[in-house]
Please model this.
Amino acid sequence: MDKITNIHGSVIQLSDLNDRIYLMKLNQDKIGELLPQLNEICVKREYTKIFAVIPNNLKKEFENECYVEEAFVKGYFLDDDAIFMSKYFSKDRKISRFPEKVKEVLNVAENKRPIKSCSNLDSNFSLGVVNKDDAGELANLYKKVFETYPFPIYDPNYIIKMMNSNVVYFAIKHSGKIVAAASSEINKENRCVEMTDFAVLPEYQGHRLAQQLLFAMEDEMRNKGIRVAYTIARALSLGMNITFAKLGYKYTGTLVNNTNICGKLEDMNVWYKHLK
Model:
């Protein structure tokens, strides 16, 4: 079972599916109490990883507790960079299963020439922000594309809950039917955003729909005053890594065996871009 909870004022995801704890938002005043408790929970639940997003100025404290830096996002916080740190409780968990493939994908992506615009969609396609009325169709799209996913996006009620909080969903429709989607998860406090939940139906792949979505998402986020965008992309997904590279995102590291997508734990690449 996966759940998001609050421990010593920090926001934590406990995830059986991902076999890890995710420290999503840190209460800096209670680090001394928090870190030992995370260790205890990890051992008790037999998890093999803790993944944490923290300010750079606290990096040393986490390193003293055997965390290692895997990636970063410059300017994530208003007054600091974010460091993506991990602590492993299993030797196997910290070893990438496909390191050469990950390098190959990165090499191809980083050698793509950046673009500043993309061609217009054909007239029978439409792109825009979607609302609660589309939640059921969004959930069905995600079911078709992903065998497993780190958050319950197969549930329309979960999608509606996210829409009511800090997440903006975008979709491309073909003749009125959703064929591609993504979301922008906004951190209002720090004016940054995670570009995530990209999904394109198999029969529509190869048409650069993810690229179209990302351009539209960036425009919308700029209009909302967002400063920094980042993503945690599947390291073996050539298409998604190329999409972010071509739009000028910078690769900063790989989270090893971090996320359960499509039935297995996968390495994830972190990319970021300053929108302003």
